[in-house]
From TrEMBL:
Tagged with keyword Transport: yes
Protein name: ABC transporter ATP-binding protein
Species for this entry: Alsobacter sp. KACC 23698
Domain of life: Bacteria
SMART domains to which the protein is assigned, alphabetical: AAA
PANTHER family named in the record: ABC TRANSPORTER ATP-BINDING PROTEIN, ABC TRANSPORTER ATP-BINDING PROTEIN NATA
Membership in a protein family: Belongs to the ABC transporter superfamily.
ABC transporter domain residues: 19-249
């Protein structure tokens, strides 16, 4: 049975767009990693980028963070074009990558101080930002602990604190719960959801674990580089006739490959 066509992309005129992606495409040889991906991400919204392994989630994040250049399409952050003015665009993004970027032999404070230095923060401002960011995750008392001694869940909180030190408009998290136990995974999701509400932070959380994002404000389903659906979890379930978000997700991503793409979604 053919799945119902998803709605058109959310317009760029939505209130408070933080990041606008328009027509992003990226190929590696004959493999099309992204195909005409267009999204508008807003402040105060927890958006889940949900897709199976190989869907193109990491490629999208590498483009958003300036590590990869798209074959076509544009990225703008609060009006700053990523290709024309990368410094201004990247300054408003906070990132937690799939693989940890903490130095295990340094203390928490040393790791965060190094990050502050890379962003040109003055020492006094850096100390204040470090204290405030760690306090958000209940880690203010552990700033002199060596990262090597910390649990996986605590390390992820330190990485989140580091990403928030520069007061980003959008927080990007690429499979942030990888390797964590279920309790630590739930704790991390809850922390980020709270920050979204309390700080008006825009969040893009990439994952293949449906249970992590069932309470997200919005879910974007990505498969084979194409956006298959975009909306509130309940709306996605209703459109695809499943009993749950997981059932709807499996129905969409298990369908045979096709060149038929909903208008406005991919080419």
């Amino acid at each position: 049975m053919t799945a119902p066509a998803p709605p058109p992309p959310r317009p760029e005129g939505d209130p408070h767009p933080v990041v606008v992606l328009a027509g992003l495409a990226k190929s590696y040889g004959r493999v099309k990693a992204l195909a005409d991906v267009s999204l508008s991400l807003r402040a105060g919204e927890f958006t889940a980028l949900l897709g199976p392994n190989g869907a193109g989630k990491s490629t999208l994040f590498q483009i958003l963070t300036g590590l990869f250049v798209p074959d076509s399409g544009t990225v703008s952050v609060l009006g700053a074009d990523l290709s024309a003015d990368p410094t201004a665009a990247l300054a408003r993004l906070g990132v937690v990558f799939q693989q940890s970027a903490l130095d295990l032999d340094l203390t928490v404070e040393q790791n965060l101080s190094y990050h502050a230095g890379l962003h040109g923060m003055a020492p006094r401002a850096a100390r204040q930002a470090i204290g405030e960011a760690l306090a958000l995750f209940g880690q203010a008392g552990g700033r002199r602990e060596r990262v090597r001694t910390l649990s996986g869940g605590t390390r992820r909180k330190i990485e989140l604190a580091r990403a928030l030190m520069t007061d980003p408009a959008l927080l990007l998290l690429d499979e942030p719960t990888q390797g964590l136990d279920p309790a630590s995974r739930r704790d991390l999701v809850d922390h980020v959801a709270r920050l979204t509400r309390e700080r008006g932070l825009g969040v893009l959380w990439a994952t293949h674990i449906v249970s992590e994002v069932e309470d997200a404000d919005r879910v974007v389903v990505l498969h084979r580089g194409r956006v298959l659906d975009d909306g509130a979890p309940a709306d996605i379930v209703a459109r695809h006739g499943g009993a749950s978000l997981e059932a709807a997700f499996l129905a969409m991503t298990s369908a045979p490959a096709t060149d038929e793409v909903p208008a406005g979604r991919a080419a």
